[in-house]
Amino acid sequence: VGEQQELSCPRAMIAVRCLAALLLAVPCAALSVGNSLSLRAPAAASLLATRSPSPVLSSERIQPPAVQPTRHGLELTSSFPPAAIRAARAVPRRSAIAPRSQRVVMAIEKPISVGVVGVTGAVGKEIIEVLGERGVPMSEIRLFASKRSAGKTMSTTLGDKTIEEFTLEEARKCDVVFLAVSGDFAEEWAEKLSAEGGPLVIDNSSAFRYDPRVALVVPEINAEAARRSKMRLIANPNCTTAIALMSLAPLHKLFTIKKCIMSTYQAASGAGAPGMDELQEGVRAMSAGEKVENEVFAHPLPFNVIPHIDKFLDDKYTKEERKVTWETRKILDVPDMPVSCTCVRIPTLRAHAEAITIETEKPIDLAAALAALEAAPGVVVVDDPANNLYPMPLTATSKYDVEVGRIRANDVFGDKGLDLFVCGDQLLRGAALNAVLIAEAVM
Questions:
Q1: Largest CA distance in the chain
Q2: What CA–CA distance (Å, rounded) separates 35 from 142?
Q3: Which of 377, 382, 356, 380 is nearest to 257 (CA)?
Q4: How is 218-272 classified by DSSP, letter by letter?
């Protein structure tokens, strides 16, 4: 890949098969290589039966794969049965293991007026979908974007709506405004939106996460911080942090975490729709023996891993890695907790995975740790190595719950150490779902 070598036909097919296995993490992501290849794998049939593909991944050149279990794993075919595609899209999203996402119910008593700013981006689209799936009572939903997108229509639970160009005056008429925008945009408008008499503003950017005036919230962990806040502005955490803390918070409550070491394996969608597009186009180019271009990522991502997410800081950590440190401390309310993180971009479309090691103040009882994780809302334990069951992007994609598994004593820290592996859909748990749950907790 690095030398941009021409691929012979057999090598090209090997490449397609390898990356196809990775991209099965997104059930609607079939690659149009040659004669519209579709993918078959043993786990994929049950996966499609439990989740509908996200609209952010739907396009003319990406169609849900026709899937049938085979004894030999991945099989390439050239058909896309329309009935299977329609059935997959018709099934509402739910947990693939159990419908546990509904365990967190923070009902809003009366219909509210909702505004979503940045509706053409990956997170904005997911927020609209989650609002409908969770049945948030809405008197109206207003869709805001740039002047370029104004006038287009989008489907919502209240029917097709026309996108409006964002203005402060119109957005302040809503009861709740979700910001799925850049940090620069949030810095300019968030406080003006939430000023006296304005709506509750939930910001998905990093602009206010470290502001001591602004609550940084994962509702299952610290919803009270949002309710106590004097500001009508609430920050949504970084997706990597939110996924990790879903499993770490119950363990911290039980054993008190002393130190945390984490390595993350982050999907292309962490860089938004452009990141996903670049990965898919790179796969197509590589399979055709063409040069792979990269603009979103520092290096070509297909068949590669890149230990570089966000900019490097003076201490040689990246900003993404430091976000995990800073936000973990703030959400768990442990300002001096040592947290070290290495963030790696991998060639999957969706769902981040994280290998986590903790050292605790108290000795860890494995049975008690497992029970705490099983009881935690928004967490599902997938830990049956004898049957090859553990967290994976394939099973975590489009799921509300964060998967936790590979739970075991850590040999370095002895009876005060624990290793675990978590996987969660960063567009949901790390963004859209978390934002909607914040609104439910506060309104």
A1: 65
A2: 41
A3: 356
A4: -HHHHHHHHHH-SSSEEEPPPHHHHHHHHHHHHHHHHH-EEEEEEEEEE-GGGGH
Residue 333: CB atoms within 10 Å: 11
Sort residue 384 into left (φ over 0), alpha (ψ -120 to 50) or beta: beta
Q: Which of 28, 343, 352, 423 is catalytic?
A: 352
Two tokens, residue 243: 């996924």
Residue 355 has pLDDT above 90, yes or no: yes
Residue type, 281: E
252 a catalytic residue: no
User: Choosing from 28, 239, 343, 423, which is the catalytic residue?
Assistant: 239
Contact 240, 327 (CB under 8 A): no
Rounded Cα distance between 271 and 283, Å, is 17
70 class by beta-carbon count within 10 Å (0-12 exposed, 13-18 middle, 19+ buried): exposed
Q: Which of 429, 210, 177 lies closest to 325 in space, CA to CA?
A: 210
Classify residue 105 by its DSSP letter. -
pLDDT in tens, 115-138: 999 999 999 999 999 999 999 999
CB 426 within 8 A of CB 404: no
Residue 28 known to be catalytic = no
Integer CA distances (angstroms), 336 to 217, 237, 272, 356, in order: 19, 18, 32, 18
Contacts of 171 (CB under 8 A, 6+ apart): 115, 117, 142, 144, 177, 193, 199
Element (H, E) at 123: helix 122-133
Position 409: which residue type?
A
β-bridge pairing 339-345 and 75-77 = unpaired
Distance separating alpha carbons of residues 155 and 132, to the nearest angstrom: 11
pTM assigned to the model: 0.77
Question: Do 51 and 96 contact (CB within 8 A), yes or no?
Answer: yes
From the list 391, 392, 351, 398, the residue with the least C-alpha distance to 89 is 398
Q: What would the pLDDT profile of 306-320 be if each residue is shown by its tens digit? A: 999 999 999 999 999
What value does the mean pLDDT of the chain take?
82
Contacts with 203 (C-beta within 8 Å, 6 or more apart), sequence order: 179, 186, 190, 233, 234, 235, 236
Neighbours of 245 (CB within 10 A): 24
